[in-house]
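Q: I have 350 residues here and want to know how they pack in 3D. Can you give me a structure?
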Amino acid sequence: MPEISVIIPVYNAEKYIARCLDSLIQQTFRDIEVICIDDGSPDNCPQILDDYANKDSRIRVIHQQNAGAGPARNKGLEVAAGKYIMFCDSDDWYEQTMCEFMRDTIEKYNVALVGTHAIFHAETRTQTKRVGSIGVIPQGLYKLNDFSMLALDGSMCNKIFRKSILEQFQIRIPDLKYVEDYAFIKMFQIAAHKAMNGNASVYYSPANLYNYNLNNVSLIGKLKENPELYGDKYFDSIRTYEHIFYFLQRHNLWEENQKLFKFAYLTFIRYNWIDLPASLRPRYLEVIRDFVKSSQITNWDGLYNNWMMKQIVQGRDSTASRAISLWLYLCPKLFRLYGYLTIYRKLFVH
């Protein structure tokens, strides 16, 4: 049985897939299997994958009809034999020591998940150029709380997961067009917290080991240019919390995590609102309204929160819009005022 299973969904990536697979074949840690899911790719990827599998027995190829990245990854999870799970996108690649570092780190700290920073690359006509990196939270061990729930980035590809927890809680990737990886990671965080008896379950490292290829215009950029065309994908971002909610219900985890869920959901609503075009806001509120009604959540922990959600549920969209916008305007000022009061009390109140 391999120590690590690396899962790669492949679709229309003939320009990049060789670089991706070469980076895995050349890993310093050899005890891995590479599971490539050909998701009905119409280009030369199926043949390229089969050629690599013939050269290296650690590469497994599964051909299927096109179903999307989430179902393709789930197919990989079904057949994965490794103790740990990692993911890679077919147009990205690993640094040569990534598997070794991730495996050593998850065992060293005895956690359920390890995340790292990553490097962004942009293509020009002649080269792939490094343009930046992502580092969301500082190095260290983390328990499940408000900060780690929101701050841990939503990418699956710069992380390693303990497979026993995926199996224990039957965690799979939701069939969403957008941010399905975010829902997967949040469900895993909650499950890991339970499985690790409340101890630190996540370690985050500043090592830059994963390489993102920015070969497409970002979804946010597309959304702003043509919101009606890409809006359905954007609504999936708020639907991720529906999947998290029903996951909590299925595994009897709601009571102990409802406060955290409500905080994260409300925060997600408000900060997504900033970039959401006005033409999409009624539909966005409708998605929220449908979920709140079906979930039967009535208490949102706070007078203002309860009032805002009541406006949404009752279809008072203009009032709800103003409530969200007012919160976004006042919140930074309130945090600043709280800081001033804290300093005042420390200096002058005894």
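Q: Anything worth noting?
A: Confidence is low (pLDDT under 50) at residues 129-133, 217-221, 334-350. The beta strands are 4-10, 32-39, 59-64, 84-87, 93-94, 113-123, 128-134, 140-142, 159-162, 202-214.
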